[in-house]
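Researcher: We plan to redesign the surface later, but first we want a full-length starting point. Tokens attached.
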């Protein structure tokens, strides 16, 4: 059972009770205002994340490899959406646990993330296989290669 769904409201009520006992209705107004401000800040952050995600196609990410490196266990779905700036493509049946989402990059790599209760439990990175015919030969000279004698041109005169 998720106790934070119970403890956070109970904690707010306890704060309101302590404020009333210590400062009367002025304390209740102050703590009540702080609680409302806290809720509005979280609502605003959620709306900003979803607004940014609405501008991108579902299930896309700039780099699946970088997303894989940034993911941490127990991260929330909202946090992952904020990192990717895109909603994940849902791969599991709707409203069933665990939830499986996929983010794919332009190179064909993708990250499958599994969420249980809104928290990230596991993820896998899948990279496409490169065919040997597509690979560039190792003997071909690179455009960035340093030509013989080029290092001497960079040396200051004596």
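Model: Full-length starting sequence:
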């Amino acid at each position: 059972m998720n106790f934070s769904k119970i403890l956070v409201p109970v904690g707010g009520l306890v704060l309101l009770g302590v404020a009333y006992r210590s400062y009367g209705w002025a304390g209740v107004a102050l703590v009540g205002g702080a609680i409302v401000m806290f809720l509005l800040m979280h609502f605003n952050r959620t709306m900003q994340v979803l607004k940014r995600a609405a501008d991108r196609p579902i299930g896309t990410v700039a780099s699946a490899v970088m997303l894989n490196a940034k993911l941490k266990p127990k991260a929330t779905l909202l946090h992952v959406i904020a990192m990717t700036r895109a909603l994940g493509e849902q791969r599991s049946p709707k409203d069933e646990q665990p939830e499986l989402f996929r983010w794919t990059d332009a190179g064909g790599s993708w990250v499958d993330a599994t969420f249980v209760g809104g928290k990230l439990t596991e993820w896998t990175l899948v990279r496409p296989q490169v065919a040997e015919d597509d690979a560039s030969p190792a003997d071909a000279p690179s455009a960035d290669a340093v030509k013989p004698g080029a290092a001497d041109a960079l040396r200051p005169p004596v």
